[in-house]
Amino acid sequence: MDRKKYGISGFFQRIAQPFINFYKRFMDGSIGTKMSHFIMGAGNIYHGQIIKGLIYFLIQVGYVVFMVTCPKVNNTPLGYKAFINFVTLGTQEGDIFTPADNSMLMLLFGVVTFGITLMYLFAYNSSIKSSYKADKDLKNYGKVTTFRHDLKEMFGNRFYIAMLTPATLGAVVFTLLPTLFMILIAFTNFDKERQAGLKLFDWVGLDNFTTFFTNPSGEIAARFLPVLGWTLIWAFFATFLNYYGGILLALLINKKGLKGKVIFRAIFVLTIAIPQFISLLAMRNLIGEYGPLQSFLIKVGIMSEPMSFLANAPNVWIARITIILINLWVGIPYSMLLASGAIMNIPESLYEAARIDGASKFTILRKITMPYIVFITTPYLISSFIGNITSFNIIYLLTGGMPKVTGGYIAGGTDLLVTWLYKLTIDEQQHNLGAVIGILTFLLTSTVTLITYRRSKSYKEEDAFQ
Amino acid sequence: MRRIKSFRSLALLLAICMIMALFAGCAKKANPLTIWVGVESVDFYTAKMAEYVENYKAKTGEDFPYEIAVQGVDTGSAASKVLDDIDAGADIFTIAHDNLPKLTAGASAIAPVRSQALLTQIKSDNPQAFLDVIDMNVQGTTYTFGIPYIAQSLILMYNTKYLTKDDVKTWEGIWAAAKKHNMQSVSLTGSDGFNNSFLVLAKNETTNRMPTVLYEDGITENCNFTSDEVVAIMQWGQRFFTGANGAKMPTDSGWEIELRDEISLGVITGAWKFNAAKAALGANLGIATLPSFTLTSEDVKGTNVKAGTVYRSGTFADCKVFVMKKGSDKADYLEDILLFLTSKEVQEQSFIECANLPAYKNAAKEFASMQTDNLETELAARQLDMFDYGIPQPFGTPTSQFYYYSKGAPDLIREILENKDGLFGTTEAIRTQLQKVENIWKTGERE
Amino acid sequence: MSEKNENVKVKKIRPNYLNLSSSEKISRLGAYILLIVLCIIWLYPIVWIVLNAFRTEFNPDGTMVGTVVSHYWPKQVGWDNFKILFTNTYFPVWFRNTLVVAVFTCILSTMLNMSVSYVMSKVKFKMRKPFMNIAMVMGLFPGFMSMIAIYYILKALGLTQTLFALILCYSAGAGLGFYVGKGFFDTVPNALIEAARIDGAGEARIFATIILPISKPIIVYTALMSFTGPWMDFIFARVILGEQNTHLHTVAVGLYYMMYGQIVDTSRFTVFAAGCVCVAIPIVALFMYLQKYYIEGSTAGSVKG
């Protein structure tokens, strides 16, 4: 296959290949195929594949109509005008009676029209290919495939295309295009002083990044490192404490001869099943100054007077430690379940062999059980580390990023990159800075992923199992 | 083979379901005239609009051309919702007046009032302080954008079991009672710029002047927060917030519980928390204007202010306003509706039914419902009293309004109040910090 | 896999309690005590919410004490909070909305997810590796960053402020989460499929008759995950449905506004707790019932290490 085409030359070869094929088909093809380069489906109709040809033709008509008529949403056109607007991001300043051009929608619709065009080009190429294939079929077998046959093929050998199309379409429309849009926002000056539809904003190149990094006295930049630092500390503790806590709990529950395993496990699974906004809100009220927990602790003499542990904590670290502890409550059951699964799958023969060798219990734990669990659950460890970097609910629901810190600029003492990003974009409408932080968060998570995941066996030896 | 059949029929069923859902989703919805009001008064305004539609029919002889939908949207989030998608905003919606700069920046997201009848009603019935803040300048021309209909200011809600009417005249009286019962003097609902206005906007009782100067005459640079008087007030505040049984900073549990569990004697808050306070204290709820306080020799140390000077706690005296969506296809009907919704009668009824304080000047004298003797009337009367000690949240330009809120000035003030000894033990330290606050108000930057 | 479990179980029943050493007994006792303490810690907040749902204490003036109180055990219990929940709030409507969204999301995203997982695992087509890499990269961007864009795309499709929009929003990206499913299908022997192909079965039929029946664990897992999602999300739903459309909210959004909205009525905490109990019961029941699949699914991506 393409396996050998690595390296730079291979890369260019890959890029160039479709164009070479395109040229080849045009030169080689019948009149129908040549026609297909201008009118989609012409080649199919030429070969008598009427339905297929019409479908292609309709796609082309639809696309052309879309591009020419430029349907409007919120007074902002799609179609070819969207491309122009994508470059200018609007020219009409607007006044008290007429609206200004909505730069944000122009940017978005530019991206959307680009996506639609890409899909159209895909269909265009496939129409030519289809016609070219018909040429060949005619030459080799003396007849072309019927529509019925094509349909059958769709559910036969080419079934994977039918299976992938809806998912790909969904992912492109609802994930890829919006993500592209968000990345592009980082290169504009779309902030709260340039609200979409009220004031135009424009492309500013890398300005947002340069102010972010070269202006260390700036409030955003000054907050970035502390927030990043806390994000990493949080991710580290939240991941590893939960992980080893879960393994220990699993070992305890699965201890030989212990009764009621199912019940114990069920109690811990309860916390996984309860929606987080419920359990976290319960926690928040439960440990408040005048909630039942503190009044109990005061009654038994552990605490002398009530204090705030979360949003109003006197010290940032009190809030941070509390969050990490609450996260143990949330997270240990997950890793306990995984570790339990692993423990139950350890082949009994391994234990027998160790016992025959006279290994002590501790040695068995250290040499057999633990390595086995760690081996099986490592992928979970990686994904949970990334999950913790972008963990939103627990911070948002418990403290809302509070307590405030000096010079916080919107970011509070427990804000992670993602919650800060949320506040900047949703609450403060500083979309450009939010996008910059989003990209930086992405760089962080993708670095972690690249370092760990690509090295892991499951990626390298994907097919080794079979 | 049987399995395949069942699979097929299942797939078919699913496809049908999905197509139906698609149609249900795309079905053309009727396009009613929408009005967003505070969540608590949806029912009231729904009834009022039904009345309006009837009047319309009686007056013109024809049905009102649109269906009307009154929906509850939090006043705080309405503005940002509109900014996210102007198109999806209601035809009429309600905001706090200090959101006007945001909404009128650039090409403006809301429409100005143009009907002479409505303008006349606004001019004749509202106090000057409100008239000053509802006009905005868009690209060189000044228009009226907001129609005030609810007023609000900070007041004191307290526990009558422990405090007499005399006690709540001064903070010292409350503090003494707090010491006697070993409780906290007062709780705060938050530590933002609205909550600390009871200190920041305190007024000298004898000169009747506010030491803090904040965007005077609408000029951004007209701020002064570093005078000796302000420093002295801050030192009093330090004593009040750090001393035993003094004021209590917000906690995780929340002030309602502090009030109910008799941890605090009272709370500084506004009418919008009335129901919650009533739920917490029941029959023991009392309402008063914010007390005054007297500077001691300790407080005036390092300043030229005389010991014994009396200050009255201040407040932001705000109004909620109705605004109209720009480019609404029902624009012709909106101003007439607003003429009715902000009329005296409707405001008085809204006071009776939802305890919304009318924005009218002289409301206390004119409205019969405000002459009765119950807690709701007390609530209204005390809020109106507070208007003598307050200013509406001001703004110079749209930008400075943003600075007032989001660049951490309230946090700097909170730091002073919480650190009497140590960090802010000297007047110099306090003054330096106050200078930072002043800079933020003026330019958005600390330095 | 299940066979192996059976074996382990049989062996675990075996220990002979009569001749346990005393140190063994002590360590076992210690384990029980520790576990019970941990269970109390884990149950403490959950039981508290349930107790609050049933707490109906009254003030002297006859109003209900709905706020958080400092005592753990209620002094008086009753059904009043549930009555208020079902008569004075939109909760029944929210519940129905969530159920509709959850069922459709579950069906749609399970279908998308399963088909992508299967293809990624068993069909070696040309764009496979790039496709997998792009999917992985996209999963690393914080999801809600694209919320505004999604809102406007849905609007361009004329769908905002409908439940259908929410369904689309939850399930459209489901195909990208194929890693778990792929991990499962990787363990299905290729020989099985080859044999069917030799018999002349089409790919669609292979998928429907051979793969689906043996994929029950992973299907149940995916369905469970996508079914519970709409019950928990309050970020997307809030933006897509709009705050003002109370009748369109899902339980998460409705309950969120009840406690976190800007006009918070803290005296409604017990009613909120009642709502939480109503939401939690079906989900907890599902989880408990399908626990086995949940564990299998969670480890599916990692079995081969």
Give an overview in words.
Chain A has helices at residues 7-28, 31-36, 42-46, 50-69, 80-88, 103-141, 147-155, 159-185, 207-214, 219-253, 261-273, 276-286, 292-299, 316-344, 348-356, 361-389, 393-398, 417-427, 431-453, 457-460, and strands at 72-73, 76-77. With 466 residues, chain A is an all-alpha fold. Chain B is globular and about 70 Å long. In chain B, the strands form five sheets. In chain B, strands 1, 2, 3, 4, 7 and 17 form a six-stranded mixed β-sheet that branches. In chain B, 50% of the residues are buried. Chain B has two domains: 33-151 and 318-384, Periplasmic binding protein-like II (D-Maltodextrin-Binding Protein, domain 2); 154-316 and 407-443, 3-Layer(aba) Sandwich (D-Maltodextrin-Binding Protein, domain 2), CATH 3.40.190.10. In chain B, helix 17 (398-406) runs antiparallel to helix 19 (427-443). In chain B, strand 1, helix 2 and strand 2 (68-72) form a beta-alpha-beta unit. The relative contact order of chain C is 0.13. Chain C folds into two domains: 19-86, no CATH class; 89-300, Orthogonal Bundle (MetI-like fold). Chain C has 305 residues and is mainly α. The longest helix of chain C is centred in the first third of the chain and has 33 residues, at 22-54. The model of chain C is unreliable at 1-15 (pLDDT under 50). Chain C has helices spanning 2-12, 22-54, 80-88, 91-122, 128-138, 147-156, 163-171, 179-186, 190-198, 203-214, 216-232, 236-241, 251-260, 269-289, 291-300. Chains in contact: A-B, A-C, B-C. Chain A binds chain B through residues 74-75, 93-100, 192-199, 219, 284-285, 287-291, 306, 308-313, 404, 406-410, 427-429, and chain B through 80, 83-87, 102, 105-109, 111-112, 138-139, 141, 143, 191, 249-254, 257-258, 261, 263, 326-327, 398-399, 402, 406-408, 411-412, 414-415, 446.
Keywords:
heterotrimer, B: 447 residues, D-Maltodextrin-Binding Protein, domain 2, 6-stranded mixed beta sheet, 5-stranded mixed beta sheet, 19 helices, C: 305 residues, mainly alpha, MetI-like fold, disordered N terminus
